[in-house]
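task queued by scheduler; priority normal; single chain, no ligands, no partner chains; default sampling; output format set to structure tokens
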Amino acid sequence: MSYPRKNHYVPRFYLANFSSLEGKKHRLWVYEKAREPRKSTPVLEGCRKDFYAFWENGQRNTEVEAWFSNLEDAVAPLIADLVLTKRGPTQSERVRLAVFMGTLYTRTPLGRQLDDSIFAPAVTTRIKSVANDPDAFYKLYAEFDAEPSSRELAEQARQEVLSGKSDELEASEPFRLASMIQVGIQYGEVLSEMDWQFIHSPEDQRFITSDNPVICETSDPNNPRAVHLRSGPNLPNAAAWFPLASRVCLLMHRGLVPGVATAPAAAIRAINKRIMMCADKRIYASALSDGLRDAFDKHGCQLPLEKLDLRYEGQPL
């Protein structure tokens, strides 16, 4: 099976959940700071050419794009059903959606930048820590290999790490893409352990989304009004937000009463403000709004990478 050269880092089906129908076509409003909003379609947005492809033995390898495509095929009908029926997910559905959210955090342009500075070095550190244990290394190696792994290849890689070639490994595109997926899966595992609440908006309110749609924040126990955005989900008091569609947003937090709720208009605006602040460059909405444009110009894209505090098993990445 061949895959398109245009790789969507924000999936088309997901963007369609924030669009409006004009006839049979989904129309999407795209907002960028200091620019007039423009009308577009999910097909044209949230994508880059060959964003997940790499050259291997003279051929373009599209395994990562295929992996994402299979995941999206499994998640798209699930999100549609959760939104329509206003029910909670089963355990298997919960895991599937958590993996989608976790990898959606790492697969965007912002996530790829994080890979350059944080994720890949963190994975390299993890690989070095188990290099002296052949069994542990093989288990970890298998997690990063899209194809069935052999002991022989794993041992060859282990010897390269022991000989000091891990930096060369870290620089390779296949490794970087594998670390992007693996860290995303780990991120999703943390999200799946939180309590989930599906927040539905009132009839006159809509959620927006962005090119960085998974939001994590922590509150300060000494100052309930202080909220730190773009933090890691493993931190104490962490909460995560993920808009599923223009009428539903998923809130994840330990100790939250799980289930389905309806939030007032003020809460919807507060969630949308968070989405604006954590956006990389763009937000997406189903309608044209001067108020939304002005709010994005004021609040949008305020958090640089330097403010990120990601942790794995309690330790900074």
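post-processing summary
- Residues 305-317 have pLDDT under 50 and may be disordered.
- The first strand starts at residue 6 and ends at 8.
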